[in-house]
Amino acid sequence: MASSCAAEAPRLLHDFGAAAGPLPDAVRSAVIEACADWRAQGSVLSLSFASDAGRELMQQTRASLVRLLEVPDSHDVLFMQGGASAQFGLVPANLLRSPAEAVLYVESGHWSRRAIAQARQQASVHSVDGRALFGAGATDDAWPLALERATASAGAPAYVHLTSNETADGRQCRAWPECAAPLVVDMTSDFLSRPVDWSRVALAYAALQKLIGVAGLTVVIVRRDLLVPAERPLPRVFDYAAQSAAASRVNTPPLFAIFVAHAMLAWIADAGGLQAVEAAVRRRSERVYRALDEAALYRVGIGGAARSHTSICFAVAARDGDAALVEAAGERGLRGLAGHAAHGGLRLANYAGTSDAAIDELCACLREFARAELPS
Fold first, then answer.
1. Are 160 and 176 spatial neighbours (Cβ–Cβ below 8 Å)?
2. 122 burial class (0-12, 13-18, 19+ CB within 10 angstroms)?
3. Which of these, 11, 108, 83, 78, lies nearest to 311 by C-alpha position?
4. Dist. CA 98–CA 260, nearest whole Å
5. 72 and 82 in contact (C-beta within 8 Å)?
6. Largest CA distance in the chain
7. Among 221, 156, 151, 193, which Cα is nearest to 310's?
8. CATH architecture under which domain 27-270 falls
9. In the chain, N or C: fewer CB atoms in 10 Å?
């Protein structure tokens, strides 16, 4: 296949890779400036977490998260490290009171399976197929019925775990199911892209490098009644109750990553808040899906309401088509379209910092590529 959507020279350089999201120009400029000097305190890279400025930065970042996400007083906000992958093991380690307790995981794709594998090292794990629950065919009572069937055979779980967005599969859960047990949600790839019903979510965790920052900072938002000392010995740095009591300063917190998150949160507030980000992410995703759906050349494996707004996965229905599109897009300045290594195909991340200009260029490329490969 020919590289059929290449421009004379790259008009835009944008990386659609899922691992780390783009920073808006204003945020990037603020970060560059702070690396030289922040509030006459010297470089933010050398800021001490024990200093007044370091404490203020953490407090302001926490307050911004609480305000934007409308986190109630019933929940605490923890700053941790290790990414979402660490939380796969830390959730059961902190929430289980006995190794004999059962837990229920909604299996919806690649990352929920990774979480299940970690939980099985510590607990009796039961799973429910979440693929049908995420889609347009799911009725209002689908979640209660599925959870009821699962608990009938497994007994009441200590908690229910859900991955709200599957980056490798392109599947997103639109609902916050009502559960008798505490609901735990991995929000890493759609954090701060939509509101959260905290009356239903007992614990949420997210590595922040995708939507509001850089690698190194993981946020855990946990209901305070769950903040009890872990039943089995845990290093204090991994103990939710210990981190809460120490205001997330059991160990040296990643202040640079916290600063970048602080700058992103300020940018989101200036842009109109969470509702504005949600509308922009949805609008951009709908434009991409429209470009994919209107051409027979493209195949989107996820349909209807289960389609992710932040992780759009697709394939080119032609021999060597995926590689050809990646090459053509690269010549246009668009990078990072290769799918997850375990799944293949193509995908693009549509995070908070993704620009309308990048989506304009991508949609134009998709249409030109399809016209060249499927002439009328």
1. no
2. middle
3. 108
4. 38
5. no
6. 67
7. 193
8. 3-Layer(aba) Sandwich (3.40)
9. C
Phi-psi region of 104 (alpha: psi -120 to 50; beta: other; left: phi over 0): beta
Cα separation, 302 vs 168, in Å, equals: 12
Enter the tokens of residue 280: 């922009």
In terms of residues, how long is the chain?
Answer: 376
Query: Is there a contact between 159 and 103 (Cβ–Cβ < 8 Å)?
Result: yes
288: Cβ–Cβ under 8 A, 6 or more apart, which residues? 312, 348, 350, 359, 362, 363, 366
Q: Count Cβ atoms within 10 A of the Cβ of residue 42 and give its class: 0-12 exposed, 13-18 middle, 19 or more buried.
A: middle
State the average pLDDT for the chain.
91
Supply the Cα-derived Rg of the chain in whole angstroms.
21
pLDDT digits (tens, 9 = 90+) for 263-302: 999 999 999 999 999 999 999 999 999 999 999 999 998 8
Residue 121's H or E segment, with its range, is none
Query: What is the token pair recorded at 168?
Result: 């490798």
User: For residue 347, what are its two tokens?
Assistant: 């995908």
In angstroms, rounded to a whole number, what is the distance separating the alpha carbons of residues 136 and 146?
Answer: 16
Summarised one tens digit per residue, pLDDT across range 57-79 is 999 999 999 999 999 999 999 99
Superfamily of domain 273-373: Aspartate Aminotransferase, domain 1 (3.90.1150.10)
- Closest listed residue to residue 283, CA positions, set 199, 204, 371, 356: 356
Distance of CA 155 to the CA centre of its chain: 30
How far apart, in whole angstroms, are the C-alpha atoms of residue 325 and residue 4? 8
Q: How far is CA 268 from CA 30, 210, 228, 259, in A?
A: 14, 14, 33, 14
Give yes or no for a contact between 207 and 218, defined as CB atoms under 8 angstroms apart: yes
Task: Give the start-to-end residue ranges of the domains of the chain.
Answer: 27-270, 273-373
Give 273's DSSP letter: -
Burial of residue 124 (number of CB atoms within 10 Å: 0-12, 13-18, 19+) = middle
Q: Which residue has the tokens 């990553």?
A: 257
CB-based contacts of 279, cutoff 8 Å, min separation 6: none
CB 108 within 8 A of CB 169: yes
E-state strands within 171-264: 171-172, 183-186, 201-207, 218-223
pTM for the whole thing?
Answer: 0.93
